């Protein structure tokens, strides 16, 4: 028996650009650590905010072979008999692997896996679902490795696995048996069976029922999805906003989920679009909030916007009220706007989106 610890990085949240792994013997002595760089054949877009930072320059990935060129090597790692496969938030990586096989018309990679994120949550329910770096910190695992470098992430997953088994005081076999339900299976057809998966339909239902109006993890995912599918529903001729990009203060976003959904739709209707990068936008909406001690809460986006504005003359800094006037609305009324229908999210439904692998 041996172990395969693996991790995948993507260029855009779906197309693989790295496959890193560690093979360890039955006592978790590492035998091999390696990384396979993959040409994603897609643009790099590292997602919400600053997103994960990859270790290698983009050109290194583009000079590598596409996934189909590495398929046989990767598949062999999973095909070995009597091998236990372990990852962190493994459902995500399993979906990436299945999607890559479908993209290139290849037979899916079938395997069963254990998930250290799920084991951690079961062992420490008060800490909830945590990213790999937070699991390492909580368990005092080796922090000398580079996050989002997939072979190092695989090594960190192994260390988390070792630390948790040691804390339980069980043999590795008994530890695996105790947490056998903390994993899933992948078929050759690319179907991932994982009882802990949250579908996008679940996220929509939660968002509609949420009365906090906060941009929590679930609502953030719904907002991100809405940004990718929003279409103009009532086009306006707005010369000031046409073709413009608008970014918002995090201070506003975090407590105004419903208003943000409405603003994103209104921007689209007026020929503009929402943007998360303050240095790339045309308008930045500032929102000043005081803490309990009376001091102004900082906003990293505002700092970036102010610096960009001073250097390049853009973005133009405006208030929520000014944006509302530009869009012909009143901000206080937006919270009660109808929530987008399921039909709007049709392309996002049931993608099996789970907790963020490296949450921001």
Summarize the structure.
About 40% of the residues lie in helices and about 15% in strands. By secondary structure, it is an alpha/beta fold. The protein is elongated, with a radius of gyration of 23 Å.
- Which outline best applies? elongated
Query: How far do the termini sit from each other?
Result: 36 Å
Which parts are unreliable, with pLDDT below 50 for 5 consecutive residues or more? 349-360
CATH class of the largest domain, named: Alpha Beta
Q: Which whole number gives the mean pLDDT?
A: 91
What's the name of the CATH homologous superfamily of the largest domain? Ribonuclease H-like superfamily/Ribonuclease H
Tell me roughly what share of residues is in helical segments: 25-40%
CATH topology of the largest domain, what is it called?
Nucleotidyltransferase, domain 5
Oligomer: single chain
Structural domains: how many = 2
Strand content: 15-25%
CATH architecture of the largest domain: 2-Layer Sandwich
Largest sheet: 7 strands, mixed
From the alpha-carbon coordinates, what is the Rg to the nearest angstrom? 23 Å
- Summed up, the helix count is 14
Counted beta strands: 11
| Class from helix and strand fractions | alpha/beta
**Which series of helices and strands comes N to C?**
EEEHHEHEHHHHEEHHEHHEEHEHH
User: What order do the strands of the largest sheet run in, or round the barrel if closed?
Assistant: 3-2-1-4-5-6-7
